[in-house]
Amino acid sequence: MKRLIVTADDFGLSREVNEAVEQAHREGILTAASLMVSAPAAADAVARARRLPSLRVGLHLVMVEAWPTLPPAELPDLVDADGLIRRDMGRLGLDLAVKPSARRQLSAEITAQFEAYRATGLPLDHVNAHKHFHVHPLIAGRVLAIGRGYGMRAIRVPREPRAVLRAAEPGATPKPALDIAPWAGLLAVRARQAGLLIPDRTLGLAWSGAMTPQRVAGLLRHLPDGLTELYTHPATRGGFPGEAPGYAYAAERDALISPEAIDAIRQVGADRGGFSDFL
Known about the structure:
It contains 10 helices and 7 strands. By secondary structure, the protein is α/β, with parallel strands linked by helices. Strands 1, 2, 3, 4, 5, 6 and 7 form a 7-stranded parallel beta sheet that branches. α1 (15-27) runs parallel beside α9 and α8 runs parallel beside α10. The longest helix is centred in the middle third of the chain and has 21 residues, at 100-120. It is globular.
């Protein structure tokens, strides 16, 4: 009854991330990774994934705060002066709502990222997005429509039950993700209508960047029935371009290889895999 997907986001962001993904899969509980196809270490990530056929890899769409796949000149509404996709998610979301040109550029960039992923030759296990921007209704519509043509069969829906967090860390008062909760609910409905597999819950939102060994082991010991995705941001160390300030990257890597986490999964009897293993 308990099915578990343990995912690493930002695969390809740096060699430090890629090394941690490989280690956590070989030695720990990591079952899946989400690839940023145009990040600086994407080629290294793809090479590692080819050496790890049991690692399920999906597409980590980038529509905010990172490197686009298309030339920046083709995305004037989406990129900043440095050629990176803009950081101002609120204003960018508004521009997508009011500017047809921004929506056309968004569709082109999403298509380019799916094309780049297909060019790797890796099976497409799942799709999600950097900073969960795929919950934006306009972005969600395009991801669902475009992804269909590239064999997308599963998508992350970022909904996290507070009760599991409080059980994992007694006394914790995690703040609910109210800013994305309504849109995540809408995405769940649309994804099911599209015939996609979605997790019953996604763990890692409230403690993003702080999924310590104690927290991960606690979450696993209180794993509910159904399909759970637990996502993390492991790296061997911080200090690389594109890192998120304040993230405890090495601690998240340690959480994935800790004996406590391995033992917790064994105790609850969870079946592990990628999304494609539970279709």
